[in-house]
């Protein structure tokens, strides 16, 4: 008798990571623009693509002995990486200590704590994301990491995270049937752009790779660091995994523009995502207007809008 189930049950929540939908945008894309496809990463268990990198970082450390049973894990994070690490730590039985700040959304802090993470919060000037805040968070994580039996995932420097996004690149290539002319992603650690670009360029060296950063802190474009509200990207200096040759182009997007596009995606496309996702889509549109109707562009809806209900992006009143 047919049970009606399309697939067998998963042995662990970790098996639910990945294989997210790729959706073509219809209403926010202007006439004459390339076709734009978005990977809906909010479908991952914590509502973020960072589930992929958290799984890869912990698996890599387990495999070579940096992380042993009974050890603690520590990380500095604006929230999405923290929630993803907390999910993996809960599933595997590790203690997790997170350094974060109230400059990031309350929903992210609550989600990390819900999965059992222990939070240390660092003060931020005017509640904004700045280079000083990031360096203060890193310093606090480094102090905790000096304690015995503690493994620091150190996301900005941990190249295990890149492998977590190779599968995303494979999914995009398969879902577009190999017909993708450009890939666009905003820069946090750089791992997602590197991981996807590795796969797409292996399949087609002509695929255009475009990086996105906050216009208020466009350091990769040669500008000065500044404060902004696009969570998860724009740390105020070039991330260690960034190399100028990784991207064919860098497109700066302002916080206001990114927030406006995030709201449009929800209202016009039914796609509920965060601010960096709005930046990605707007950058894709700007590139798409140059490439024209025949081109196909893939980008990411990095996480769910449910992580931003208390922020200016979606807060009512």
Give me a quick take on this structure.
The protein is an alpha/beta fold and 317 residues long. It has 9 helices and 10 strands.
What this model shows, in words?
This protein has about 325 residues and is α/β, with parallel strands linked by helices. Helices cover about 35% and strands about 15% of the residues. The protein has helices at about 50-65, 80-90, 105-115, 130-145, 160-165, 165-175, 190-205, 255-270, 275-290; strands at about 20-25, 35-40, 70-75, 95-100, 120, 150, 180-185, 210-215, 250-255, 295-300. The strands form two sheets. The chain has a six-stranded mixed sheet, sandwiched between helices. Helix 6 (about 165-175) crosses helix 7 and helix 8 (about 255-270) crosses helix 9 (about 275-290).
Here the CATH topology of the largest domain equals Rossmann fold
The residue-averaged pLDDT reads 94
Structural class by sheet pairing and helices: alpha/beta
Give me the number of helical elements: 9
- CATH class of the largest domain reads Alpha Beta
How do the helices and strands line up, and which of them pair or pack?
Elements: E1 22-24, E2 35-40, H1 50-64, E3 72-76, H2 80-92, E4 95-101, H3 106-114, E5 118-122, H4 131-145, E6 150-152, H5 160-163, H6 166-175, E7 182-186, H7 191-203, E8 208-214, E9 249-253, H8 255-269, H9 275-291, E10 296-301
Parallel strand pairs: 2-10, 3-4, 3-6, 4-5, 7-8, 7-10, 8-9
Antiparallel strand pairs: 1-2
